[in-house]
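Submission checklist for the structure archive. All mandatory fields must be present; incomplete records are returned to the submitter.

[x] Identifier: tRNA (Uracil54-C5-)-methyltransferase
[x] Organism: Obesumbacterium proteus ATCC 12841
[x] Residue count: 41
[x] Sequence attached
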Amino acid sequence: MNIQMLEWALDVTKGSKGDLLELYCGNGNFSLALARNFDRD
């Protein structure tokens, strides 16, 4: 996985409100990395 893509996605979602919905059926590289920027209720 391209580290720069993950770093960019983390930067643009920092402080986001709401939920994350990843529609890509893969191994969850983005879901796992981005989970820290979203609340779980």
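[x] Structure attached
Curator remark: The longest helix spans residues 3-13. The two ends are 29 Å apart (CA to CA).
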